[in-house]
C-alpha cells in the first residue's frame, strides 16, 4: 500500500487512554473511598505487586499519588489538545462516586469532579471515552461481599452506572463497561493470576485454594460481570439512545506453535477458553463450547432465566480492545486440549517476535491479524482500539529533550497495520487511542519508569520529583500523524 492510499475516515478518533487509578492520585480527596488499586504496593519487572490487607504504614502505594491528574487535568488536557486529540479515554473511579460501593447516596464531590473533567474535554473538542470499571472497585465491596464472587455486586455496579449515565448523559457518548474483562481467564497458580483476578474481580485466594476452586470462582464472577454489563448497556440506552456502549477486552491473538493437529486443537481451545467473554458481549449468549464445559464441570452454578434474558437484551454497540502482543501456544502432550482446567495449553516462545525491556512481545502484524479475526467472528462489529503502546525507559537530556525513537517505531508499525486493516481489509475500526499518552503509574508493576507517554512526567517510582511535564520527540510525531489523519507516519 503506498503512502498516498493511507486514508481513514475524517471522523476517525485519534487520541490516547489512561485509567483513573493510574493517574489521578488524590486517593483520599473529595470524599473518595479506598479502591482495590489503593492496596497494591509497588512491584517491578518480575516482582509482583503485593495486595495488602488495608493500607499498611510505610509501604509504597503508587496509585495514591499517580501523576496527580486530579489537580493537573487542565494542563494535561491542554497538551493533548495541542497534539490534536479527537478523543481521550479515562475511567471514572467508582470510589469517587460511591466510596464504599454500597452507599445509599452518591458522593456529590466526586460527581462534580467528573463534571469538570468532561466539561474541559468537551470545551477542547476532545470526545470523552469513558470506562466504568478499570481495575478499581471499592475495597469495601471486597471486604463485605467478596468482590464479584457475590451476585449482590451486580446491583451496586448497575446503580453506580445509572447514576453516572444520568449525570453525564449530555457530556459523554462513548462508554465501556469493564476493562479487559477476560484477563482473568489466564488462570494458573502463578502469582500473576492472583493479581489479575484481584484487579478484575476483587477476589483474593488463600494458599489452600485449589486451582479448580479458583477457576470456578473466576467463571462465576465473570458471569456476574457479564450480566452487570448487559444490564448497564440496556439502562444506558434507555437513558440516552445515542450512547455508544461497549465491552472491553485485551486481545493477544493466539498463534499455534506448529501446524500439528494437536497444536491446532490446543490453539482453538485456547481461543474458546478466552473468547466467550466477547461472544456474550456481542451475541448476548454463551457459545456452545462453553455451555458444554460449564455443564460437565458444574462451574457457573448460578445462572438464572433472568440472567439469560438480561444478557440477550444487553449486547454491546462496539468492542473496545487493547493490543500489546501475541501469544503462541502448543498442546500439553500428555493430555487432551479440553478447556476443563483452563490450562489446556502451554505458552511457548515465538522466535519470530522481539520483546521490550519487560519481555512483552512486539508484534505489529498481530494487530492486523486480531482485527481480521474479530471481524470474521463478529462481522460488522465496530472496534475501537483503546490501548496500544510500548512501555520503555526514557532519558531526559540536559536540555530537557527526550528522544524516544523506539516509541515512534513501535506506534508507527502498529498504526500502519491498523490502516491496512481498515483500508485493505474493510474492517470497521473507529478509533486509535494509544495507551498512556502521558506517563502514568504502570498497572502491572506499579513503576513510573515503565513509560508509555508522548508527555514525560518528572516523577520516579517513589512518587518523588517535580511532576513537571515535558514533550518527548514522539509528541511532535503523533501530532503530525493526527493532523494528516494517519497519512504521515514517517
Ligand atoms: C492494560 C491495562 O492491560 O495494560 C492498563 O488496561 C495497563 O491499565 C496496560 O496500564 C499496560 O500495562 P502496564 O503493566 O505496562 O501498565
Topology (elements, then pairings):
Elements: E1 13-17, H1 20-23, H2 69-83, E2 87-91, H3 94-97, H4 108-123, E3 127-133, H5 139-145, H6 152-167, E4 174-178, H7 191-201, H8 211-239, E5 244-250, E6 254-256, H9 261-283, H10 288-297, H11 305-313, E7 318-322, E8 327-330, E9 346-348, E10 354-355, E11 361-362, H12 364-377, E12 383-387, H13 405-423, E13 429-435, E14 455-457, E15 469-471, H14 473-483
6-O-phosphono-beta-D-glucopyranose (BG6) binds next to loops.
Principal-axis shape:
globular
Spatial strand arrangement across the major sheet: 1-2-3-4-5-7-12-13
CATH architecture: Alpha-Beta Barrel
Strand content range: 5-15%
Count of spatially separate domains: 1
* Count of helical regions: 14
In CATH, the homologous superfamily goes by the name: Glycosidases
Secondary structure category: alpha/beta
List the bound ligands: 6-O-phosphono-beta-D-glucopyranose
Number of strands: 15
Name the quaternary structure.
Answer: single chain
Low-confidence stretches: none
Spell the H/E element sequence: EHHEHHEHHEHHEEHHHEEEEEHEHEEEH
The radius of gyration over CA amounts to 21 Å
The CATH class: Alpha Beta
**CATH topology title:** TIM Barrel
The profile of the biggest β sheet is: 8 strands, parallel, barrel
Amino acid at each position: 500500500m503506498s503512502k498516498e492510499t493511507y486514508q481513514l475516515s475524517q471522523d476517525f478518533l485519534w487520541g490516547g487512554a489512561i485509567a483513573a487509578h493510574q493517574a489521578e492520585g488524590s486517593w483520599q480527596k473529595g470524599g473518595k473511598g479506598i479502591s482495590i488499586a489503593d492496596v497494591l504496593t509497588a512491584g517491578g519487572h518480575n516482582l509482583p505487586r503485593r495486595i495488602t490487607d488495608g493500607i499498611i504504614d510505610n509501604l509504597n502505594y503508587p496509585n495514591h499519588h499517580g501523576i496527580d491528574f486530579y489537580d493537573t487535568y487542565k494542563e494535561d488536557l491542554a497538551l493533548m489538545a495541542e497534539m490534536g486529540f479527537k478523543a481521550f479515554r479515562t475511567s471514572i473511579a467508582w470510589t469517587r462516586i460511591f466510596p464504599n460501593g454500597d452507599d445509599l447516596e452518591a458522593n456529590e464531590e466526586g460527581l462534580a469532579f467528573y463534571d469538570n473533567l468532561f466539561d474541559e474535554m468537551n470545551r477542547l473538542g476532545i470526545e470523552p471515552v469513558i470506562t466504568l470499571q478499570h481495575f478499581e472497585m471499592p475495597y469495601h465491596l471486597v471486604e463485605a461481599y467478596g468482590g464479584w464472587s457475590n451476585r449482590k455486586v451486580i446491583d451496586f455496579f448497575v446503580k453506580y452506572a445509572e447514576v453516572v449515565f444520568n449525570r453525564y448523559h449530555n457530556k459523554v457518548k462513548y462508554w465501556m463497561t469493564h476493562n479487559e474483562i477476560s484477563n482473568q481467564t489466564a488462570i494458573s497458580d502463578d502469582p500473576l493470576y492472583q493479581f489479575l483476578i484481584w484487579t478484575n474481580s476483587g477476589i483474593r485466594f488463600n494458599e489452600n485454594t485449589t486451582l479448580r476452586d479458583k477457576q470456578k470462582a473466576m467463571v462465576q464472577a465473570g458471569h456476574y460481570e457479564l450480566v452487570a454489563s448487559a444490564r448497564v448497556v440496556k439502562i444506558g440506552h434507555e437513558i440516552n439512545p445515542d450512547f455508544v456502549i461497549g465491552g472491553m477486552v485485551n486481545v493477544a491473538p493466539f498463534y499455534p506453535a506448529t501446524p500439528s493437529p494437536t497444536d491446532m486443537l490446543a490453539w482453538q481451545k485456547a481461543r474458546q477458553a478466552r473468547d466467550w467473554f466477547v461472544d456474550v458481549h456481542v451475541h448476548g449468549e454463551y457459545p456452545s463450547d462453553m455451555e458444554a464445559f460449564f455443564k460437565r464441570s458444574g462451574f457457573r452454578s448460578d445462572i438464572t432465566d433472568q440472567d439469560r434474558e438480561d444478557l440477550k437484551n444487553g449486547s454491546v454497540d462496539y468492542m473496545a480492545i487493547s493490543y500489546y502482543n501475541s501469544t503462541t501456544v502448543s498442546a500439553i502432550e500428555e493430555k487432551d486440549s479440553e478447556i476443563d482446567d483452563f490450562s489446556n495449553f502451554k505458552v511457548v516462545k515465538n522466535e519470530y517476535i522481539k520483546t521490550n525491556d519487560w519481555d512483552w512481545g512486539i508484534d505489529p502484524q498481530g494487530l492486523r491479524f486480531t482485527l481480521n479475526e474479530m471481524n470474521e467472528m463478529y462481522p460488522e462489529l465496530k472496534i475501537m482500539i483503546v490501548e496500544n503502546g510500548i512501555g520503555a525507559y526514557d532519558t531526559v537530556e540536559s536540555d530537557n529533550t527526550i528522544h524516544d525513537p523506539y516509541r515512534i517505531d513501535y506506534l508507527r508499525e502498529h498504526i500502519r497495520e491498523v490502516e491496512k486493516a481498515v483500508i485493505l481489509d474493510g474492517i470497521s475500526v473507529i478509533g486509535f487511542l494509544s495507551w498512556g499518552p502521558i506517563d502514568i503509574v504502570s498497572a502491572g508493576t506499579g513503576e513510573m519508569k515503565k513509560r508509555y507517554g508522548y508527555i514525560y512526567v518528572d516523577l520516579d517510582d517513589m512518587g518523588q520529583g517535580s511532576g513537571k511535564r515535558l514533550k518527548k520527540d514522539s509528541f511532535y510525531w503523533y501530532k503530525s500523524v493526527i493532523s494528516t489523519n494517519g497519512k504521515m507516519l514517517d
